[in-house]
Amino acid sequence: MGFVNQTSASEFFLLGLTDDPELQLILFELFLFMYLVTVLGNLIIILAVIFDSHLHTPMYFFLSNLSFTDICFITSTVPKMLISIQRQNNSISYTDCLTQMYFVVFLGGMENFLLAAMAYDRYVAICHPLRYMIMMNPNICIMLTLFSLFSSMMDALLHSLLVLRLSFCTYLEIPHFFCELAHIIKLSCSDTLINSIVIYVSAFLFAGLPFWGIILSYVQIVSSILKTSSKRGSYKALSTCGSHLSVVSLFYSSLFGVYISSALTDSPRKTAVVSILYTVVPQMVNPFVYSLRNKDMKEALRKISDRIL
Hints:
This protein is mainly α. The chain has helices at 21-51, 58-75, 78-87, 94-127, 132-135, 138-164, 181-186, 193-226, 231-264, 268-274, 276-279, 281-292, 295-308; strands at 3-4, 11-14, 91-93, 168-169, 173-174.
């Protein structure tokens, strides 16, 4: 197999989810619908938080940031796929591919950290209610968000710089609908040991630690609830966590599903299909989870609809 210098690798080819023209048309309509629903749903959440003063709290501050991240996350992958299907051209330039890879890693990490920050907010609210306004003051919320932003950007930048040093073979087809980091590395003819090590280390630091932070927060929350003698107080505490738990369960179960499927199947196409569960579905479902299971959000949406109508 021939070698080309990284500067000569002018483009990659995204094979997408299927080669069947009829299925591609169905996928185009389906993903266009999902994209529009995701953008509209998350945009409504952001507007509700901005315009309703009752939602100017730490929990909804993080939620609005999560909604904005969801919009950016799905925008980094789906529009390119829709354009490729429409034009029947699956090529993507080297620069665009690495840019897309950067934003997927960055926004995925950002979502990870924001979910952990939201879990910490629920922990403080339930376990330390009297100190809540002190421990979750606006400065702390902004610092947590900026830390999430900076950490995710640095992680994505590190992976991008390591990919830039690689040379690629002549076979530049990616069996996916977006430029996924692991698939790009597999195409390289260079030594990718450092890249693989960094992937595992960063997965532990930027995915594992936030996940275990969420687990620890809810262990403390459950422990605090069990010590509460009032059933009404316990129900109220659990109800404030219900939406966040639903989103966390969907996001991480999707990630684990992708990991398990990639380990059990030799078909990259099947793994690409499963990856929809964490790159598209959670971002679309999140607004419905928070709007349908949250009384404050329902009231805010009702006020917005009354103003419009």
